[in-house]
Amino acid sequence: MNEQEKINFKKEHNDRMRKARANIKPSNCMLCGKPITSFCNSHSVPKFSLKYIANDGELLRASVLADPEKINVSSGLKNTGTFHLICNECDGTFFQDYESEEKLKGELSDKILAQIAVKNVLIQLFNKKLEISYIRIFQNETNLFANFADYEATRQFDVNTYIKEFEFHKNIAENSISGGYQIIYHEILPYKIPIAFQGMIAMKNDFIGQRINELHNFKDLSYKIQHLHILALPFENESCVLAFYHKTDRNYQKLRHYFNSISRDEKLKCLNYLILEYAENYFFSSKIYKELETNKYLKQLSREANGRPDFGLLAEENSYGIGYKPVTKDDIPIFLSKEWALNSI
Ligand SMILES: [Zn+2]
To answer: How remote is the CA of residue 137 from the centroid of ligand 1, in Å?
Structure first.
């Protein structure tokens, strides 16, 4: 792409994105049900944490790894990882127990974990709705998808699943139900990590090859994908790393037992890999741009989907994935380790 083509591409993308966002704007707040009069720019990763790794108010998006053209790779603090599903009042009150450094440093109650889970589901729900809306606009412009109805139906199934999961965790948060969540890792690291992430992921296999989710099970509509919630939040001179699941997602017991058998450094290595392999909603400090730009395994991983090359699109060009060697947790830099701490760069 030449410079003019890049500018045009970016403009078209931004136009579609603006329309897609407007199309999915809810009329009522998903948390309190009141009509929404003005948009609330809710942050998926809490803003208090993002600001610690922003440079001149800017952060790098995950797309810095996957996009060779480097379009839309940086993001201003105000609009980084935002979603629009709830009202201003709920945004300021519902998550207040967990959006605090002091609270995250202490013992984590089920109420706090439920708030984090609610936020994580809302992020997924918003992103999925946005994807459907964006692709619909794109399809209207290009008519590119032959089987668009199927494409839309599988995504709509995800939306319905997220709505059920949202109600489940919201109920726990509002009624202070305890005993449901299982923490597998929670530590305040004595250094500042260069990556910020909050979200939930669906692992295919655990680290010793045992199956956790059948990710391509589109036929069985009662099949429930199981989620792991992860937080990696930089503070001023420390960081909070947390991983937990709800006990109803019992396949993560295998991961919990594995975590009980490995060292702390190995746990950080695993969580680092899970974020980079499964998530999209993570942000980097621009201080590590050189590594992001040059590390071939990070690039390869960003194009990998569930262990398959090229976003899982198997074709003749990639030999249908035969012989493809997926990136492992040992190949990539461990941004959660002290070695990458921002204070020491
Ligand atoms: Zn509300």
So the answer is: 29
